[in-house]
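Batch manifest line 70
LIGAND: iron/sulfur cluster
JOB: complex structure
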Amino acid sequence: MSETCRRCRITIDTYECNGCESCVSLMPELFRMSEATGKAETVGDIAPCSTNLDRTAAVCPQSCIAVERL
Ligand code: SF4
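JOB STATUS: finished
ARTIFACT:
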């Protein structure tokens, strides 16, 4: 049940990521750009589930952010 969900696993398909930085702009506490690859990466793989996180994943133009409820 979503009401009991507290943690989510975030993964980015870096092959698909186009480096637009939208996720970083929306949630800099969870996403950052890799200087090495120019693609997004997660600050941590596990984060609290939130509406903002769902929205950020939905905004990704490449649909390459996966949010899995644990
Ligand atoms: S919003 Fe998606 S395509 Fe843009 S940087 Fe983030 S993961 Fe990459």
